[in-house]
Design goal:
The complex is a heterodimer of chains A (250) and B (434). Chain A has nine helices and five strands; from the N terminus they run H-H-H-H-H-E-H-E-E-E-E-H-H-H. Chain A has helices spanning 22-25, 32-47, 56-67, 72-82, 86-93, 115-133, 175-186, 202-209, 229-236; strands spanning 107-112, 139-140, 146-151, 163-165, 168-170. Chain A is globular. Chain A is of the alpha+beta class and 250 residues long. In chain A, strand 4 (163-165) and strand 5 form a beta hairpin. Among the domains of chain A are: 22-95, Arc Repressor Mutant, subunit A; 107-201, Glutaredoxin. In chain A, helix 2 runs antiparallel to helix 3, helix 3 (56-67) packs antiparallel against helix 4 and helix 3 (56-67) packs antiparallel against helix 8 (202-209). A five-stranded mixed beta sheet of chain A has the order 2-3-1-4-5. Chain B has helices at residues 21-26, 31-37, 41-51, 63-68, 94-100, 102-116, 130-145, 176-183, 212-224, 226-230, 263-270, 327-341, 347-365, 370-383, 391-415, 430-433; strands at residues 79-84, 120-125, 161-166, 207-211, 240-247, 253-258, 279-283, 292-293, 317-322. Chain B has a five-stranded mixed beta sheet with strand order 6-5-9-7-8, with no helix packed on it. In chain B, strands 3-2-1-4 form a four-stranded parallel beta sheet, sandwiched between helices. The longest helix of chain B is centred in the last third of the chain and has 25 residues, at 391-415. The two termini of chain B are 37 Å apart. The chains are: A alpha+beta (250), B alpha/beta (434). At the A-B interface, helix 3, helix 6, helix 8 and helix 9 of A face helix 3, helix 5, helix 7, strand 3 and helix 9 of B.
C-alpha cells in the first residue's frame, strides 16, 4: 500500500553533482499530469512487493518514463511516495547506470566495448560513431535523437560485436552497419532490432522497465541464429538427450 | 566425437512462438508441475538432491542441499529468488533461455517454491534486455491466467505470487546478497555472511537464490528422474549444461552438452577457430575465471576439471581469442570493467581495481616498467580473498593468469614502447575492410 506522503516542504532539495552539467541541476518540475500518472501506476508497483521500499527501482523507471531521466523533482516524488528522504532515493538512483541523470535522446545507442566485443570490432565501432555523430561518451546529438554511450557485456557474445538501441539487440554489427543504424534513427526511420520489437523511444522503454507490458511481446523471433547453432548441430549429428523413462530415479 | 549433444533446455528454442504458453504446453510444458504438486515437498528436495544438480551460476553448490537448508515450520515467510541478472562477461545462456522459453523457468520456479514452502518468488532480471523482459512479463501473466500462479494452484492448497523485478545496470547485483539489497530498494552492495540467505535472506527471511539455468533444469529432472539426469555428465557433475561459445571461432553459439566435455571436443564438432587462425587464450567460464591457453584444451569442463588446472568452471562462458589478440589489451578492458562495477564497499576491491587500470594505461602507452608487473601481482595478492564478495577475486583472475602465461607480452609493451598488435587484425570484419 502507498505510504502517507510526507509534506514536500519537509524535504530538502536535491543538488546533483555539478560535473554532470547544467541540465541536471536546472529546475525541471514534473507536470501535474505526469505526477498523477506516476502516482497511479506507482500504486500498482508498490502492491507487487511485501515491503514498499522494494518498489523504489521501478518507481525510478516510472519517473524516467515521464522526463527521459531521473530529475531532482522525480526523486522528490518517489521519496514522497515511499516515505523516504530524497537522500535515500538519490543514493539508489545514482548507483545504477540505467537511471539517466541528464535528459537522454529518443534513442540510447550503447556500443558494447567489454573485452570480447571490443576486440571483435566494438572499439572500432564506438570510435567511428563518436566521430560520425560528433559526440563523446554519453553525448547527445543536437537534434535530441541519439545519445551515444559505451556499455558493458550485454549477454550476446555469440553475436559480437553488439550494439544496443533502447536495450534492444542489434547483433553482428560492423562500422558501416552501425553508422547506417544511427543515420536511420536520426532520420526518423528506425530499423527493426535483430531480436526484438520495433523500437520505442527511450521514455516509452522506461515504462516497460517499470514492469508494464506494452503489447509488443510477439514481435521478433524465438531465438537468433547463434542461439540455435547447438540445436542445428544436434540435428546434423542426429543426437539428442537420452529418452526419459517415467519411473527412473523415484 | 566422444560426446553427444543433449538439448533439453534449448530443445524448444526453435519452435514457432516458443515463448507462448500454448507452444510450451504442446511440448509437454507444465506436466512436471502436475507431477510435482502430487509429491510431498520434502520428496522433491530429495529428488533434486539425488539428481546431483549443482548451481549453474558458477559456484556449483548442490541445489537440493541449498533447498534443504531452509528451516521448516519456523513461522516466517520463505522466498525464492531467481538470479536472472546474467552479466558476467562472456555469459550469454540465460538471456536467450528467457527470450525463447520463459515458461521453462517459470515452471521451475513454481516447483522450487513449492518444495521450499515459499509463497512469493521473484525473478531479478537485468534491465538491459528489453525484449527478454517483455517475454518474462507476458509468461508470468499467461501462467497466472492459466492458474499456475496465484491461489490454490491446480486445485491444491498451494499459493504463489510471482514478481518480475527489473534491475538497472549493475553487475554487482549478480552477487546474491547484493541482489537482495537491490531487491529491497537499496544500493546493490554485498552483505557480510553469515547469516547466509537460507537463514536471513530477503527481508531477513529464509531465502533460496538460484540461477536461471539451475531452476530451468528442475522441470526436466522432475519428469525424467534423478537417474535419467545422472545418465548425462560425470559422477560429481551430473547433467546437461549450456556451453556458450564466442569469439574468434567458426561457429559461435549455444551448445547444450553433458558436463565433462572438453573444449577440444567442442571445437572439433563446431569447425574450430576462424579460418587461418589458432587459439591463443580462452576463459572457461567468464572473465572472472582465470585464463586458459591451448595447453588446456583437454581439461574436462565440469566442476572438478578447471580447478585442478588453476581455473574454475564458472558459467561455461567459453570466450576464445586467437593469435591476433593482445592479451594486455584484453585484460586492461576487463580491469576497466571491474573498476567500473566495483560497488565501492570494500577498500581492496575499490582501490585495487582502480590501480589496475592506471597500470594498464601505462602498459598500453609504453611507459610501464618491469616493476609494474610486480605491482600488478602485489595488488592482486591484496585483493584476492580480502573483500565481502567475489567481484574483487574475479578481477584478479585475468590479471594473474595472463601474467603467468604471457609475461613476455607484458615485457614487449614496455620494451617496444607500446602495444605490438594491430587492433584491426582481431576484428571480425578485418578481411572485409582490408
Amino acid at each position: 500500500m502507498p505510504q502517507q506522503p510526507m509534506s514536500s516542504d519537509a524535504l530538502p532539495m536535491v543538488t546533483l553533482d555539478p560535473r554532470l552539467g547544467p541540465a541536471a541541476v536546472a529546475s525541471d518540475p514534473l507536470s501535474d499530469d505526469a505526477r498523477q500518472r506516476v502516482r497511479e501506476l506507482g500504486a500498482h508497483v508498490i502492491a507487487r512487493y511485501p515491503r514498499s521500499r522494494s518498489a523504489l527501482m521501478p518507481l525510478l523507471y516510472l519517473v524516467q518514463a515521464e522526463q527521459g531521466y531521473v530529475s531532482p523533482d522525480g526523486i522528490k516524488l518517489v521519496a514522497e511516495m515511499l516515505n523516504l528522504t530524497t537522500a535515500e532515493v538519490s543514493a539508489v538512483s545514482t548507483f545504477y547506470t540505467m537511471y539517466k541523470r541528464r535528459p537522454c535522446g529518443d534513442y540510447a545507442v550503447g556500443v558494447c566495448t567489454n573485452t570480447l566485443c571490443a576486440i571483435l570490432g566494438g572499439d572500432a565501432i564506438f570510435e567511428s560513431l563518436k566521430e560520425h555523430l560528433g559526440v563523446g561518451n554519453n553525448g547527445t546529438t543536437p537534434d535530441g535523437k541519439v545519445t551515444l554511450e559505451h556499455i558493458e557485456c550485454n549477454a550476446a557474445c555469440d553475436y559480437a560485436p553488439v550494439v544496443m538501441v533502447n536495450w534492444e539487440f542489434f547483433d553482428n554489427q560492423t562500422v558501416e552497419s552501425a553508422k547506417e543504424l544511427v543515420d536511420r534513427l536520426r532520420a526518423g526511420d528506425p530499423p527493426a532490432p535483430t531480436r526484438g520489437a520495433p523500437l520505442r523511444t527511450h521514455m516509452e522503454t522506461s515504462k516497460v522497465l517499470a514492469g508494464f507490458a506494452d503489447g509488443a511481446v510477439n514481435a521478433g523471433p524465438s531465438a537468433g541464429p547463434a542461439s540455435l547453432t547447438g540445436l542445428e548441430l544436434a540435428r546434423e549429428r542426429n543426437e539428442s538427450a537420452p529418452a526419459m523413462r517415467q519411473e527412473d530415479g523415484r | 566425437m566422444s560426446f553427444n549433444l543433449t538439448p533439453v533446455l534449448t530443445a524448444q528454442w526453435g519452435l514457432d512462438q516458443s515463448w507462448t504458453l500454448g507452444a510450451y504446453e504442446r511440448a509437454d510444458g507444465y506436466q512436471a508441475l502436475r507431477q510435482a504438486l502430487d509429491m510431498e515437498p520434502d520428496a522433491l528436495i530429495q529428488l533434486v538432491k539425488d539428481s546431483g544438480l549443482r548451481g549453474r551460476g558458477g559456484a556449483g553448490f548442490p541445489t537440493g542441499m541449498k533447498w534443504g537448508f531452509i528451516p521448516q515450520g519456523d513461522g516466517k515467510p520463505h522466498y525464492l529468488v531467481v538470479n536472472a541478472d546474467e552479466s558476467e562477461p562472456g555469459t550469454c545462456k540465460d538471456i536467450p533461455m528467457m527470450m525463447a522459453s520463459p515458461h521453462t523457468l517459470i515452471e521451475g520456479v513454481i516447483i522450487a517454491a513449492y518444495a521450499i514452502r515459499a509463497n512469493h518468488a521473484f525473478i531479478y532480471v537485468r534491465g538491459e534486455v528489453l525484449h527478454v523482459i517483455r517475454r518474462l512479463l507476458n509468461a508470468v501473466a499467461e501462467a497466472r491466467a492459466a492458474g499456475y500462479v496465484g491461489r490454490n494452484i491446480l486445485g491444491k492448497s498451494f499459493d504463489l505470487e510471482l514478481t518480475v523485478h527489473i534491475g538497472a545496470g549493475a553487475y554487482i547485483c549478480g552477487e546474491e546478497t547484493a541482489l537482495l539489497e537491490s531487491l529491497e530498494g537499496f544500493r546493490g552492495q554485498p552483505r557480510l555472511r553469515p547469516p547466509f540467505p537460507a537463514v536471513e535472506g530477503l527481508y531477513a527471511c529464509p531465502t533460496v537464490i538460484n540461477n536461471v539455468e539451475t531452476i530451468s533444469s528442475v522441470p526436466a529432472i522432475v519428469r525424467g528422474g534423478a537417474q535419467w539426469f545422472r545418465s548425462m555428465g560425470t559422477e560429481k557433475s551430473p547433467g546437461f549444461k549450456i556451453f556458450s561459445l564466442s569469439g574468434h571461432v567458426a561457429r559461435p553459439g549455444q551448445y547444450e552438452a553433458p558436463l565433462g566435455i572438453t573444449l577440444r571436443e567442442l571445437l572439433d564438432a563446431t569447425g574450430g577457430m576462424r579460418e587461418g587462425h589458432e587459439l591463443k587464450f580462452w576463459t572457461p567460464g567468464g572473465s572472472s575465471t582465470p585464463l586458459f591457453t591451448a595447453e588446456h584444451l583437454d581439461v574436462p569442463l565440469d566442476f572438478e576439471g578447471p580447478p585442478q588446472h588453476g581455473s574454475m568452471l564458472g558459467t561455461t562462458a567459453l570466450q576464445l581469442f586467437d593469435e591476433t589478440t593482445c592479451v594486455v589489451r584484453a585484460v586492461k578492458r576487463w580491469s576497466e570493467f571491474y573498476a567500473h562495477e566495483s560497488c565501492g564497499k570494500c577498500t581492496p576491491c575499490r582501490e585495487g581495481t582502480f590501480w589496475y587500470v592506471q597500470i594498464y594505461e601505462r602498459l598500453e602507452n609504453g611507459t610501464a616498467t618491469e616493476e609494474d608487473i610486480e605491482t600488478l601481482l602485489d595488488l592482486s595478492d591484496n585483493i584476492l580473498g580480502r573483500a565481502f564478495c567475489a567481484l574483487g577475486d574475479g578481477a584478479t583472475s585475468p590479471v594473474t593468469s595472463s601474467i603467468q602465461f604471457f609475461r613476455d607480452e607484458y615485457v614487449a609493451h614496455f620494451e617496444q614502447g607500446g602495444c605490438p598488435f594491430d587492433p584491426v587484425a582481431s576484428t571480425v570484419f578485418a578481411g572485409a575492410s582490408a
